[in-house]
Amino acid sequence: MALLEVKDVSKQYGRKKAMDHVSFEVAAGHIVGLIGPNGAGKSTTMRAITGLMSYSSGQITFDGQPITFSNHQALDKIGNLIEYPAIYPNLTALEHLKLYAMDTKTPADFQTLMKKTQIDGDNFGKRKAKQFSLGMKQRLGIAIALIRNPKLVILDEPMNGLDPQSVHDLRALIRELADDGVAFLISSHLLDELQKLVDDVVIINHGKIIETATMTAFFSHDKTRWLFDTSDNRAALDLAKSHAWVATLTDGHVEIYGADNLQQVITAFNDAGLIITAIQTVTGNLEKSLLDMLANDDKGE
């Protein structure tokens, strides 16, 4: 049985369906990316899972226990950072951890947690949160999400405000915890960073789940694309389209897919007298695959 089960959950605001029969699962030790455009229903889904809002129909269970707006018993082993952490400007980082640990019997060790999330410096024990940068506040929010030694951690845009080294360190921390059996449900608009981290993807659009898959399975149907630089990219673009290949100008390159193979494209360009100056094969790009999938879904609306 999955650790988290979301079954046929719907939530409606007037005529707008924020969640439309949403169903997916998160297994122990798995890192799941909840992905979709702004307004797709990601935050609503996360809020429903953490008991922060009611839902109209369906069922959410965690570790075999139901979660509703009025039933929070299961939430003791769920940590979350949704949007911006609730931080009090006149408390230090350590005081925040002590505050958020008051309602749990088995909190994480404060010093160990501060070290893991890189808030163990002397200044963090002395400076008040009103002096923290956005990145510092984000790291503190992640530490607060981990204070209960949770079995499941829900993170909405956890990489906001973090520098590249901090993002790398956060990925390493999440992977370390997942290897110890902690499950994660993560939403982020930084898809290139998310791609390096997640095991599974859940894609939501207009409140509906349009895809659930492992990363490997998700990319198994990803079309191989080639980026060309030629002596005349506009002519190369027109030539590709004349062969009924899908072709676009992307960041100054001619992007092509739909040909039988790479050699077929090279031969066509050579026969047309176009000089190829660079070729790049592109596969397994989460952002591109997501945009293609959303475009196809919107066409079917």
From TrEMBL:
Q: Which Pfam families match?
A: ABC_tran
User: What SUPFAM superfamilies does this protein map onto?
Assistant: P-loop containing nucleoside triphosphate hydrolases
PROSITE patterns documented for this protein: ABC_TRANSPORTER_1, ABC_TRANSPORTER_2
What are the record keywords, sorted?
ATP-binding, Nucleotide-binding, Transport
Does the record carry ATP-binding as a key word?
Answer: yes
Q: Where is the ABC transporter domain?
A: 4-231
- What does the record give under GO molecular function? ATP binding
Regarding protein family, the annotation reads: Belongs to the ABC transporter superfamily.
Query: What is the recorded name of this protein?
Result: ATP-binding cassette domain-containing protein
